[in-house]
Q: What sequence folds into this?
């Protein structure tokens, strides 16, 4: 532990030195440091925390202190706060239509959600749209419904509808004769509160974890652009595309990083959008109720439901959640799995190592060498995973590469394991077997491995 502390101090020093260099020379590029200088358990660099319990995703960055720590704790309380319908002396403003009553009720323990719809602990929501684009190039909301189905409502108002989920099992055969079973979901919209336009698109989205996002926000745009290969110019079958989305805070187009289709440009807009769409809490960035324009909606009030300081604090909380350290990194099976992971080309999209840029306000997020296992780019994952609903530049087959850091702890944090954008996969193995499109070749390489090699890949994932 002592050695480790010394190490993270060294990482911190590098971060500060990096910041200094940046001030002197604007064109100084982030350096690649030699591998043996680093402890590979530090998935989040100086923003790594050592806890493998069910609370693993809930910790502030270790170096956070003073006023920053105070704002983080304020945001933590905001994240856990349940809202109620107005009029109420405190935490009013819920709805009139919503999906859940607090952030934590979808992002359980700051981790991944569970794929039920319409229940109190449900973390699965559905985006809606019809053909075409809105004025900002985003999805075209459905008349009378908007861009998201709110399946809950306060008393006296009807929820927009419900979604029923039906799974059928589909067997997959490995070349070595063993097999696995995948659940294929079908989503049916029921109890629509008003007539719906024909031919609408419905996109299931289950809550992803929310730790480590401050680091992902600081990955330089140049890094994302350098990994992208939208027309597959190098001919390796893997393209990777940057999403360009509408930034409602700055009123301009920006690179998308957050959301399952990289459909949000920043943590702040993502959080503000969640308050508005998921909970019906209006705020400075999204001041119009999600029910606006519906025949059943009350006249919107002029005031916003959420104080801007609270919005900022919750965004700060998300930005400053630490990444859990890896476990068992010296275990021979884990190390073998790590090699195979690279060999069968998983790392082409799940990029093991990236370097954050510099923001002088956040030294412990700056110039960090991190292991997020994502490129934050959009990839065509084949028709099996497609939602057939475009989201800015993301087409109906494309999803953002899911970060794999912390994935070995999802089950512990949540109590139940569910993977992929809609929670259809019940194990890491099933998640891999769903890969298609650009990842088809990589999936086939996985399937051709011997059983013990496949187990090693899974064991490696469990160490993340
Ligand atoms: C109804 C469930 C639900 C609620 C309530 C909810 N979220 Fe989410 N959250 C989601 C889903 C689903 C996504 C993915 C959205 C997408 O792809 O468009 C998401 C995405 C996010 C992300 C982006 C994560 C990433 O990896 O890109 C952040 C940050 C986030 N939510 C924070 C919050 C905060 C803060 C609140 C409370 C204000 C909140 N959420 C409330 C379901 C929920
Ligand atoms: C072409 C890019 C690409 C390649 C190659 C790829 N993946 Fe993925 N991976 C993705 C994307 C995109 C998702 C999110 C898909 C979704 O949610 O529907 C994902 C999701 C996952 C998940 C589930 C994550 C979660 O949070 O639920 C796991 C586990 C995973 N990949 C492991 C692997 C492994 C192991 C390999 C190599 C056999 C691999 N991937 C190869 C792009 C890729």
A:
């Amino acid at each position: 532990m002592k050695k480790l502390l010394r190490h993270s101090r060294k990482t911190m020093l590098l971060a500060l030195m990096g910041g200094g260099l940046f001030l002197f020379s604007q064109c100084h590029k982030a350096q690649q440091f030699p591998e043996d200088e680093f402890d590979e358990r530090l998935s989040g660099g100086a923003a790594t925390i050592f806890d493998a319990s069910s609370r693993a995703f809930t910790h502030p960055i270790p170096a956070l202190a003073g006023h920053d720590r105070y704002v983080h704790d304020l945001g933590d309380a905001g994240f856990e706060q349940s809202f109620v319908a107005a009029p109420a002396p405190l935490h009013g403003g819920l709805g009139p239509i919503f999906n859940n009553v607090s952030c934590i009720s979808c992002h359980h323990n700051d981790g991944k959600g569970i794929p039920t719809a319409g229940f109190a602990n449900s973390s699965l929501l559905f985006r809606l749209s019809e053909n075409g684009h809105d004025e900002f190039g985003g999805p075209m909301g459905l008349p009378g419904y908007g861009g998201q189905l709110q399946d809950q409502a306060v008393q006296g108002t009807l929820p927009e509808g419900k979604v029923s989920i039906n799974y059928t099992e589909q067997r997959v055969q490995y070349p070595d004769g063993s097999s696995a079973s995948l659940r294929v979901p079908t989503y049916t919209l029921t109890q629509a509160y008003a007539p719906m336009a024909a031919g609408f698109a419905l996109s299931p989205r289950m809550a992803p974890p929310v730790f480590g996002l401050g680091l992902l926000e600081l990955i330089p745009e140049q890094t994302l652009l350098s990994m992208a290969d939208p027309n597959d110019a190098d001919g390796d079958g893997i393209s990777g595309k940057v999403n360009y989305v509408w930034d409602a805070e700055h009123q301009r187009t920006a690179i998308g990083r957050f959301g399952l289709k990289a459909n949000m440009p920043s943590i702040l807009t993502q959080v503000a959008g969640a308050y508005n769409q998921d909970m019906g809490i209006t705020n400075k960035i999204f001041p119009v109720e999600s029910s606006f324009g519906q025949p059943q909606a009350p006249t919107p009030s002029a005031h916003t439901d959420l104080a801007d300081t609270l919005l900022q604090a919750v965004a700060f909380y998300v930005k400053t959640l630490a990444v859990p350290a890896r476990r068992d990194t010296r275990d021979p099976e884990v190390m073998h799995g790590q090699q195979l992971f690279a060999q069968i080309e998983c790392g082409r999209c799940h990029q093991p190592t990236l370097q954050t840029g510099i923001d002088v306000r956040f030294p412990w997020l700056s110039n960090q060498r991190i292991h997020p296992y994502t490129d934050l780019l959009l990839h065509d994952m084949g028709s099996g995973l497609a939602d057939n609903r475009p989201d800015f530049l993301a087409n109906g087959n494309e999803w953002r590469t899911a970060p794999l850091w912390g994935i070995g702890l999802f089950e512990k944090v949540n109590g139940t394991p569910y993977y992929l954008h809609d929670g259809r996969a019940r194990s890491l193995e099933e998640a891999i077997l769903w890969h298609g499109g650009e990842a088809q070749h990589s999936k086939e390489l996985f399937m051709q491995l011997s059983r013990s090699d496949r187990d090693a890949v899974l064991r490696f994932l469990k160490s993340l």
In short: The pocket of heme C (ligand 2) is lined by residues 238, 344-346, 348-350, 379, 381, 385, 399, 401-402, 407, 419-421, 428, 431-432, 435, 438-439, 442-443, 446, 457, 461 (CB under 6 Å). The mean pLDDT is 91. The radius of gyration is 22 Å. The CA atoms of residues 341 and 347 lie 7 Å apart.
